[in-house]
Amino acid sequence: MRPIPRSSRFANGGVSFWFRDMGLPERRPSLPGAADYDVCVVGAGYTGLWTAYYLKKAQPDLRVAIIEREFAGFGASGRNGGWLSAEFSGSRERYAESHGKSSMIALQRAMMETVNEVVAVADAEGVDADVVRGGMRLVATNAAQQERLTAEIEYLQEWGYWPDDIHLLAHDHEPRLSVAGAVASAYSPHAARVNPAKLVTGLARAVADLGVDLFEDTAVEEIRPRRGAARPAVVTGHGTVTADHVVCATEGFTSPLRGQRRDWIPMRSSMIVTEPIPAELWEKIGWEGREVLGDAAHSYVYAQRTADDRIAIGGRGVPHRPGPDQDGSTQPQEIAGLWRALTRMFPDVADVPVEHAWSGMLGVSRDWCPSVHMDADSGLGWAGGYAGSGVAAANLAGRTLRDLVLGRRTELTRLPWVGHKVRGWDPEPLRWAGTRVVHGLYRTADRRESKTEDKGHTSRLAGIATRIARR
Ligand SMILES: Cc1cc2nc3c(=O)[nH]c(=O)nc-3n(C[C@H](O)[C@H](O)[C@H](O)COP(=O)(O)OP(=O)(O)OC[C@H]3O[C@@H](n4cnc5c(N)ncnc54)[C@H](O)[C@@H]3O)c2cc1C
């Protein structure tokens, strides 16, 4: 492999390129001491912020606090690929099993409306997050991927996507997006490109302006359920906050929290971004529509053309034991893998230096299904497990948590991910071994499919991996 060109400004970590570009925010004050609220939210990512936003909008006199260990957007919400899309990661069959197929279709339609909702609220609140409603483009670069992409579209059209919502594109489709070796592509209008850090920072400002007390630099050590007359409580080194309801919105960071169920394990996703790409290369590539772009590989990638004409691309990296996620740095083999994917898709970009690499934690449940919960007895609520598709889903979860906290029975609280029961993860080291095996099998399947060793069909290895992962 030729050496990866690195920018003189190259950085690895530093939370994310998005934050480095706009500057890390000045931290808000930490919790001054013991306090009492109607609702206390733990974690200031999209889930926590949207929950607080909609609660305060619905009931302005509600006393709402958010307790954040670092600063708003420090987690996945300030590091992601900026796909605001209607993609939903859970198994449709599992939700349909408990609630019926029409209920799952309602959830998918709600995800589509959520893309509009986020764009509309960002607009109304004056949040400039470089939003472009360009839709989503998926490309297949070999026969097996083409077969899978076609089957996926047929499948989605049975589960709430109508033909206008996702379809295959003609080869000469305009606006052009030239991906090397593409043999098929599909399009959905239900997506927008965003700058994730601008979105989360603007949302935090809007939430604070509404009168929510947002405390940063305050680590929550334990979340206690209601016990008899003792109200639910959030324990920090700065004092304990009691509240009628506590919402845990820490997704990929949840497992170390005392008193939290271990429904979600942390998985890492990594990204790289190039320097701005010269205009003459953009003329070759096209991508005037600024669609968010993905592929149909098993170890898939997600990409966007940024507001300042770079390419940011990410993917599930090599699994390694997640340690404390301080600065979001990523490993050399992940950078190399992403650069290979980038230059396979866009060979002309091979001389454009990579300027930044970073990673973040997302939360994955054992059945890969996201869920939203509010337990009336304990007073505790939580949402997450979005498995890498959380930018829009966190907004839908936030609106749903609003209704659950306020005791409203609405069409949102009837959606099948509300109260979805999640089986616990296997103990270590089984879980670790399983993750590595699945990762290896998917990688090998992709390699075999690209060489058509599997005669243009999805590799059997991928089927084995999916069964092990129980997705
Ligand atoms: C690299 C990457 C790329 C991704 N790309 C996309 C994409 O393009 N599209 C998409 O839909 N999804 C994507 N995702 C997933 C998406 O970003 C997440 O699902 C979503 O941001 C989750 O939001 P959240 O608020 O639930 O969690 P987070 O944003 O992780 O927020 C949790 C917050 O809790 C705080 N916290 C943790 N522990 C404590 C504690 N003990 N006390 C107080 N505070 C605490 C953290 O500091 C953090 O701010 C990506 C994720 C990653 C990592």
Automatic annotation (TrEMBL):
Enzyme class, top EC level, equals oxidoreductase
Q: Does the keyword Metal-binding apply?
A: no
Looking at the record, the residues that make up the FAD dependent oxidoreductase domain are: 38-404
For the keyword Nucleus, the answer is: no
**InterPro entries from the xrefs?**
FAD-dep_OxRdtase, FAD/NAD-bd_sf
Q: What GO MF annotations does this protein's record show?
A: oxidoreductase activity
Q: What keywords appear on the UniProt entry?
A: Oxidoreductase
Q: Which Gene3D superfamilies match?
A: D-Amino Acid Oxidase, subunit A, domain 2 (3.30.9.10), FAD/NAD(P)-binding domain (3.50.50.60)
Give its E.C. classification number. Answer: 1.-.-.-
Which Pfam family is an annotated match for this chain, by its short name?
Answer: DAO
Q: What is this protein called?
A: FAD-binding oxidoreductase
The organism of origin for this protein: Nocardiopsis codii
